[in-house]
C-alpha cells in the first residue's frame, strides 16, 4: 500500500491503494483454474454416458458459444464498475436496481453453493475410484441409500467432511493465492497433455461408428449442452479482480475470452480421447478420465490422472466457496439478507458467520444429493443469472444521458455512497415504473424468448398431429414478434457514454445470449426446474418479508421522510405574525418567507464559520473511517464531474468495526 502524507496536500487526503499486480496471464490462470476442474474430470464423462454419447463434443461447443455471448456482456458489466472486487450483484445494484440485484445475487449464491457441494462430491468420487469403490460400497452397506433431491444416492459422508474442511480453511482467512493457483494449473496442464498423448495409443474408431456418435439424437446434444454449461461456470471470478488487475479495462475482457477458449480446447480434446477409448455406455460416471486408463490396464495412467484430478478439483472447490460469503456479506449489509450474516471475525477479518452458514448448507447438499443432480441444478441458476446480466447490458446501453455514469467513480467509497444515496429514484423506478419504450421492449424480449422455446420444445418437438402444427404456427408468430421487438430496440437512441470495453454488436449479441441461454434452461429436466422454482420462491419470500423492509434504501427513505415531516411540523408552529421587512431593508428582493433556517437569515459571517466547522468535521470523519483491510478506501475523493465527497464505506473490505 502507498499512503499519501496528509500534511503535503491542502485538501488533507488519505488514500490507500491496493497493489495492482495481476496481469492478463494471471487473470486467465484464475479463470481456467475455476472452470477446468469438475468440468473436465466429471462433466465430460457424465454427459457422454447419460445424455449425448460422443456428441458431447458438440454439446461443449454449443455451451461455449453461450458462455462467450454471456462473457462479453459480463465483461462490459465489470468495466462499468471497474474499481470493485464485487460481483454481478454489486454491478446490478449500482446500475440497475435493488430487486434485480437481489435476484441475481440469490442465483449467484445458488451457483456457489452447489458448486462447492459438487466439488466436494467430485473429490469424494475420485477417492472412491482410487479405492476401487470400497468407500461407496461401505456406505451403502452400513448407511443405505437416500432419495435426496433427485435420483437415489448414498449418504456421501466423505463429501460432507471435505466441504466442512474447506469451509474452515476459508473462514480462517487462508486465501487461494495466485501463485498457488498457477502451480495447480501447471499440474493440470501437464496431466492434460499426458492424457492426450497416452490416450492416442488406445483409440478405437468403432466407438463412433454405426450411429454411436449421436445415440440420443440432437435433443440429447442440446440437453447435454445445458448441463455442459456448468463446465464454463467460473469465468466471473475474473470480473471480481478489477481492483488488483494492472489494467482492468483491457485485461478483464481479454482474460474472460481467453479462459473460455482455453477451457473449450481442453474439454473438446478430452471428450474426443474419452469417447474413442471407451464406448459411451461403458464410461464410468463418477471418475471417467481415471477409469478410461484402468479399462485398458494402464494403472500408471490412472494414478497420473488422479494427481491432476486433485489439483483441478481443489482449485475449483476453493473458487466456488471463496466468493460465496462475500456475496452473502454484501447482500446482508445492504439489508436484503439477515443482518447477522455481516458479522466479521476480529481475528481473521473474514465474514465468519456467512462462511459457516454457507459452507454448512453446501456440506449438507454434498451429503444428500447426487453429483448429476447438483450439476444440473447449478447450470440453471447460472444460466438465469447470466441471462439477466445480458438484459441489464441492453437496458444500460439505451439509458438517457441523465442516468448514472458508473464508470466515472474512482473509488469503492464513491460506489458505496452511490448505492445508499436517496436523492434520486432507484433504477428499478426507471425500468419498471416509468415504462420507457426501450425498457418495455427489452423486458418483453426476455419473456417472449421463454414462451417461444417452450412452444417449440414442448409443442413442436414433443407434440404430434394438429397440436404440433398449431404450436408451429404460434412459434412462427412469436419469432416475428421477437424480430419486431429487436427492430424497435435498434431504433432507440443509444447512450453516448463510451467505455474502454463495450460488448460488440449490441443489441444483437445480448439478444443472442438471451435466446441461447433461455433455450438451454428449458432443455434441463423438469425436476431441476421444480427444485429451482422452490429456491426462487424461498428467495422471494425472504425479500418480501425481510429485504423490502430492512434494505438500506428503504431505511434511508424512511429517515428522509421523517426529517421532512419534522421540518414541516416545525415550520407550522412558527409565529409568522411579524414582517420580514422589520429585519431587512426595504430594497431587498421580495420573496416568500422560508423560516428561520433560510440561508439569507443567518448572515455571511456565520455562514463562513459553519462552513469551516463542517470542513473540519469532514476531515476528522475521513481520518476515522479509514479501512485498513479494504482493497481501496478513499477520503476526500471527489467525483470527476464535480460531485460531493463520498462518506460511504467500502463494501468489500471486511473490517472488525462491523462486529
TrEMBL record:
Gene3D superfamilies: Amino acid/polyamine transporter I. It is a multi-pass membrane protein. Its main location: membrane. Residues 501-551 form the Cationic amino acid transporter C-terminal domain. It comes from the Eukaryota. Keywords: Membrane, Transmembrane, Transmembrane helix. Residues 612-627 have a biased composition (Acidic residues). GO terms for cellular component: plasma membrane. Pfam families: AA_permease_2, AA_permease_C. This is Solute carrier family 7 member 14b.
